[in-house]
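Tutorial, part two.
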Amino acid sequence: MALIPYDDRDGWIWFDGRFVPWREAKIHVLTHGLHYASAVFEGERMYAGEIYRLGEHTRRLFQSAEILDFEIPYTLAEIDQACKQTCERNGLEDCYIRPIAWRGSEVMGVAAHDSKIHVAIAVWEWPSYFDPQQKAKGVRLTWAKYRRPSPETAPTASKAAGLYMICTISKHAAEREGFADALMLDWRGYVAEATGANVFFVRDGVLHTPTPDCFLDGITRRSVMEIARGRGFEIQERHIRPEELATFSECFIVGTAAEVTPVAQVGEHRFTPGNISLSLMDDYAGLVRRQRQTA
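Running the prediction step on this input gives:
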């Protein structure tokens, strides 16, 4: 299937409070967010006309902006409504939503107190993040070269653009080697997350997941933990050493884009997608589709 460039599509983008034609949503080359990564964003999904956990995503967007020392010039309710309206304006009921806020081009330099804060929201159809035929069989991950930084060296509690630079590098390297993604360690050498998803492991019916103390405690991650506890599973949040992977029977990753995806391999370690991974994958898929009826 031919790639459709993201700058050459039909549709509408919400840009600083108004809708503009998709191809006209542009910024200046000297935008601070481009040069200094002073931008925060969210990744959300609409299922059957309802954006999953929209309020939580919007609150995190505002919290990320605060961490990066700027204020979004809209209310949470206004951004919530703008997300819904952008989906409606584009005629979509199942789609991916990308709100982003960034410093503008008024100031060019490290310090940019007087720069204007811009906000845009784009939505588009986006099917499975991984090959649907491969998903239930489990995707293959390699180890990432880069590690998640310490909270003392980067604003790790924010969903900030700059923190994803090492994710892009790591995912590119993984795909060149024939893998779907890469698993990252943190600065201490503990297992952290994949390039865009949190990770879980299974041993003797117990779920193990890294403590999110230097990466995002994902909204999908929390949803899956709620589902798992509702099923009676024990969950241990803790530091996980990479050599422990040899002791786990199942592995899966979770995120807005990845949803719940079983993992068949991480580097030298092999896993077989089992009842726990597959049932949580199905339960999550059912939950996001039922939300409209239960909201």
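Helices lie at 32-36, 54-67, 76-89, 132-135, 165-176, 219-230, 275-294. In part three we will examine how such features are distributed along the chain.
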